[in-house]
Structures are given as structure tokens and as C-alpha cells.
Design a protein that fits this description.
Distance between the termini: 57 Å
Helix content: 25-40%
Number of strands: 8
Oligomer: single chain
Radius of gyration: 26 Å
Number of helices: 8
Strand content: 15-25%
Structural class: alpha/beta
Strand order of the largest sheet: 1-4-2-3
Largest sheet: 4 strands, parallel
Order of helices and strands: EHEHEHEHEHEEEHHH
Length: 196
């Protein structure tokens, strides 16, 4: 329950809630999970604790799940945008239309269809041992392994730039005649024949 891919909230569409939620809740409660639901969820599972606004924001790190009944995919996506952590979101659906909306509009590091949130692991994605997960947008997002922590560094020394331009295939930008003349005066290195 204290893993990064643990589910914290379950949103259930109202069209299937009466049929599915009581059975899902019974299995979860039998396994020792405490459920905290909105009034619609509680009306279907009376022994569920009534959720408050803090429950939607909380990462429990425990066997607790908040449950909300929603009337549309848009309401679900809005709930995730307001309360989600940006870590991992998953939709369980047979509807390609709902899945497409979810996968393109939910802003999280990992967005999945018909998969457990516990799949959110660098090893599962072929990245090797996971060091952590990033929910921001720079420079890594999602599971972070050694390769995702690797960054590049460019030297800001004028001579280093000139040397890269003149001698390396790794620097993709050439120098204009004006830049070359300026750098030559600053560094004492002239343009080499056939380079730069």
C-alpha cells in the first residue's frame, strides 16, 4: 500500500456504479481496505465512510481508497486535474472514445488503459532499476533510472565553442564568417581549412 503505484482514488461512472461498485467494494473491504466515498458511492455501499475534501488530496500510504461516482469522462478528467498528483492514472474501459479522451487529456507522468497502476515502474518499462519518479516536466518525467538522470553539459568558454565547431561532428552548428573572425581575434585560433 505504501508503494508509488498504489491507487488512492477510484472514480466509477454512474452507468456502471450500481452493478460494479458493491462487488468491488466487498472485495476491497474483505482484503482490509477502508473505503471513503462521496454520497453517491456511499448510497451504493452504506458501510463506506463518507469522504471529505481532504480525502481527494490525500496520498494515504495505507489500505485506504477514496471513491467517487462520476457522470462523465469529463468529470473524471476534471477531478484528476484538480486532485491528482501527476504521477500515474489508469482508466479501465471498453470504450475507445473514453480511453482516447483520458489518454490525451490527463496530465500525468504515466497514463494507462486497462492496466494496474502498480505497472508504473521503470523495470516494467524496460528502464532497468528505478531510482524514483518525476512528475514535473523537465528533464525527466515518469520513472527515472540511471539513463534518465544523465544530462549533457556544454562549455560556455569561447575557445571551447570554437574547438567544437572546428573539430567535432558533435556540434551541429557552424560559425558564420563574422563569428569566426571574432573568435579568432579572441582566441588566436583562425578558421582551419575545410572545417567549421
Amino acid at each position: 500500500t505504501g508503494i508509488c503505484g498504489a491507487a488512492e482514488t477510484m472514480l466509477v461512472h454512474q452507468d456502471v456504479a450500481a452493478e460494479m461498485l458493491p462487488a468491488i467494494a466487498a472485495d476491497l473491504q474483505k482484503a482490509g481496505c477502508q473505503l471513503r466515498g462521496d454520497s453517491a458511492a456511499k448510497s451504493l455501499v452504506p458501510d463506506m465512510q463518507l469522504a471529505n475534501d481532504d480525502d481527494w488530496h490525500t496520498e494515504y500510504l495505507d489500505a485506504i481508497l477514496s471513491v467517487r461516482v462520476v457522470d462523465s469522462i469529463d468529470t473524471a478528467i476534471d477531478h484528476i486535474a484538480r486532485y491528482g498528483s501527476g504521477h500515474t492514472e489508469s482508466i479501465i474501459t471498453e470504450s475507445d472514445e473514453a480511453a482516447d479522451a483520458f489518454l490525451t487529456r490527463v496530465d500525468s507522468a504515466i497514463v494507462m488503459r486497462n492496466a494496474s497502476t502498480q505497472f508504473a515502474d521503470g523495470g516494467e518499462f524496460g528502464m532497468g532499476a528505478e531510482i524514483g519518479i518525476a512528475t514535473g516536466r523537465l528533464h525527466a518525467r515518469g520513472p527515472v533510472g540511471g539513463a534518465q538522470l544523465t544530462s549533457c553539459s556544454l562549455s560556455h568558454q569561447v575557445c571551447a565553442k570554437r574547438a567544437l565547431c572546428a573539430h567535432s561532428k558533435h556540434w551541429p552548428y557552424g560559425l558564420s564568417k563574422r563569428e569566426d573572425d571574432f573568435l579568432a581575434r579572441q582566441s588566436g585560433i583562425g578558421r582551419q581549412e575545410g572545417r567549421g
